[in-house]
């Protein structure tokens, strides 16, 4: 988990962009049908007739289309038609009707399972030196995506209330869990930016069981270390290292609690008196009255006040303050969060005029 310099990050992004520029349907078709993916793919494919646009071929075209500068269906079909003729196959119609119908038949669960499978495959191949103290570290991050201003998109993903009707675009919120050692996306959850359960905390809870395992560590920003999430992670045997939820009703006084060093202490968080709407009464009653956590100050540089981090890794001998600071720094320095994935792959603005059928 060596640090990436700014130059290395730039080079990595340039390599990714170059791969995207040369990505085509054949490249994705070969990747989907190689030994590591074929068995999983075949187990997920729906019943279908052998036709020109099989689910595998359609998905390959769709992936290439999403990464192309020209994302029209016509361009995707034209490119494949030309590639077929170069390879010696018989000409096909360049009408987009069959391709569009085939895309609509693609099960979204198929795509999501392939994302999970590829992420877990990458994680399994991570060698021990890539891990932190022999532990797998996951990172949670969130972002938003814009999409065309159609009635259907507005109904599913309404624009923020701070924007006047007719002057904004539908927004989709994404929360994903990534493997820190490989940069692989383990899974994602998404929903509207407005309404009950639309926050990053609510979306993260959809991913906990499928993405986190006992003994792992979760890194997150200041949106995530709420009392009930920390408690849930403790029940799962997962440690957490996050920026403190400053400005959300919690402040730090290092004169309180059990001192572990300079601006480093153990403190007890008290259970909120008001039950969150999403939490059942039974779970609220089961939650302990206090949680023991560790808080410490992490300076970011000269003239910067830094930030307070909160963690459930409370033993100062096993988890030194400097080691935890360096681990949290990795979250930013390798820059694998969604903000960079979506901009590098050109996915910050979606081009489909209908919302996904998840």
Structural class: alpha+beta
* Morphology: elongated
Helix content: 25-40%
Largest sheet: 9 strands, mixed
Strand content: 15-25%
The separation of the N and C termini measures 35 Å
Spell the H/E element sequence: HHHHHHHEHEEHHEHEEEHEEHH
Quick recap:
The protein folds into 2 domains: 6-106, no CATH class; 110-344, Transposase Inhibitor Protein From Tn5, Chain A, domain 1 (Alpha-Beta Complex), CATH 3.90.350. It is built from 14 helices and 9 strands.
Describe the structure in your own words.
This protein is an alpha+beta fold and 358 residues long. The protein has two domains: 6-106, no CATH class; 110-344, Transposase Inhibitor Protein From Tn5, Chain A, domain 1 (Alpha-Beta Complex). It has helices at residues 6-21, 25-32, 35-44, 55-67, 73-86, 97-105, 108-124, 151-156, 200-205, 208-211, 227-236, 281-286, 321-333, 338-344, and strands at 137-146, 171-179, 185-192, 217-220, 239-243, 258-261, 264-270, 290-298, 307-311. The protein has a nine-stranded mixed sheet with strand order 3-2-1-4-5-9-8-7-6. Helix 2 (25-32) packs across helix 4 (55-67), helix 4 packs across helix 5 (73-86) and helix 4 crosses helix 6. It is elongated and about 75 Å long. It starts with 5 loop residues before the first helix and ends in a 14-residue tail after the last helix. Mean pLDDT is 83; it is low at 1-5.
